[in-house]
Amino acid sequence: MPRPLWAGAISFGLVTIPVKIVSATEDHDVHFHRVHLADLGRVRTRKVCELDDQVVSQDEIGKGYEIAKDQTVPVTDEELEQMPLPTAKAIEIAAFVDAGTIDPVRISDSYYLAADGQVAAKPYTLLRKALERSSKVAVAKFAWHGRERLGLLRIREGAIVLHSMKWPDEVRDPQELAPREVEVGEDEIEQALQLAERMTIEDLSGFHDEYREALEDILAAKAEGKPLPTPADDRKQDKGEVVDLMAALNASVKAAKESRGDDTEDATVHEMRPAKKTARKTPAKKTATSKTAAAKKTPGKKAASKRRSAS
Question: Which distant-in-sequence residues (6+ apart) come within 8 Å of 159 by Cβ?
Fold first, then answer.
């Protein structure tokens, strides 16, 4: 069990559930030190007071809020902890909503809530079962790192998960980023849907961090004095190149089909043409008919040739 980050209680009406918060994720990134390139010595960050130009230690550093220019008031951790908030040491459930109504953009970090002691086992299980049977999620408020936050409680494999959320006014309006309205054909939409169907999977456990693996290979090669791994020949499409959307979709569907080893007949990719062009298939039938007629006349010509030879 990882080290708890916070201890308090879930407030569910008149029910109190003592819990501890632990991180639900782990950091597997490769971290670098800042070094002096001349001798590879570590470069440290020194905290200097801009008024007296003196280096200050961590125990001399506190919080301050700038009210106006050249006017700052100090704020202590004790003052923040003693604020009259009902959520200071509680995760207060305020409402229950359908999971589908929550915009994923608002979801931030994730934490597991562990029952704190045997006394918490029964109310913890009660809340878990209530969330599971209702297929809903709980919206809660809690204090975290000196501020009140909005949270989301849901169930994951028998454990209660707390997602910190952005407040509604913290999410930017995406309207100004949307592209101008363009016309998309129904055949293009159908091909996109077919591509999405081909790429649909049920388990994400197969994904892994290829960047980190490549970086670890480079670090291992440098440590052993070996040549660095050569990059794969990945000729990316020029950004200035105009893309035939239908051709790209057809090629993508075909590649997705081949990657999954799907050779069924219904998976065949057919080129989609406008209705007017379909009428051009008729001359092809006439050509085949004329060829057949010519083939029938051929024996007659051969017979006449034989008669001339006999005479």
Answer: 112, 113, 114, 128
Give 285-306 pLDDT, tens digit per residue: 444 444 444 444 444 444 444 4
Beta bridge partners of 95: 139
* DSSP line for 99-166: GGGS-GGGEEEEEEEEE-SGGGHHHHHHHHHHHHHHTEEEEEEEEETTEEEEEEEEEETTEEEEEEE-
**Beta strands, E only, the chain:** 6-12, 15-23, 35-36, 41-42, 63-68, 71-75, 90-98, 107-115, 136-144, 147-156, 159-165
What is the distance between the alpha carbons of residues 259 and 253, in angstroms, rounded to a whole number?
Answer: 10
Looking at per-residue pLDDT, the higher value among 259 and 35 belongs to: 35
Two tokens at 118?
């045997």
SS3 209: coil
